[in-house]
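A.,

Following up on our hallway conversation. Structure tokens first:
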């Protein structure tokens, strides 16, 4: 009962948690367990009442973070910043690559020009072939 509401509640609270995936799953299990226990005590309770008992997602996330070791939030905040920096570097790299490709096509007008020189010799039956030019 209230599976979609519990899932939405856990998603909203989970976005505020600075912890590992396993710890978020633990939070989800604890929340589902709390909802089931409350519904056993008060069968047929409406969702707003159940949510009021749980508290707001912000309050639940804050209480859960307080139960974790103190350095957990700092560790995951640092990891989040590192991921953001890597994502920003990747976006900048892709942007620079696109600028380079566009500049190449603007300068060359979309065509790479290759110059090639061909020399044709017409020989008579009595004439000999002149020496070949040095290509180096």
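Then the amino acids I'd put at each of the 136 positions:
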């Amino acid at each position: 009962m209230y599976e979609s509401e519990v899932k939405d509640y856990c998603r909203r609270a989970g976005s505020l948690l600075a912890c590992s995936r396993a710890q978020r799953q633990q939070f989800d299990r604890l929340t589902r367990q709390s909802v089931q226990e409350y519904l056993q005590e008060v069968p047929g309770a409406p969702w707003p009442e159940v949510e009021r008992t749980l508290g707001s997602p912000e309050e639940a996330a804050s209480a859960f973070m307080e139960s974790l070791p103190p350095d957990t939030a700092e560790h995951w905040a640092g990891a989040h910043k590192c991921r953001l920096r890597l994502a920003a570097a990747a976006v900048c790299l892709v942007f620079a690559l696109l600028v380079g490709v566009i500049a190449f096509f603007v300068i060359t007008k979309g065509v790479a020009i290759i110059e090639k020189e061909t020399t044709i010799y017409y020989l008579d039956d009595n004439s000999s072939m002149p020496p070949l030019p040095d290509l180096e």
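The first helix runs from residue 3 to 14. Curious whether your intuition agrees with the design.

B.
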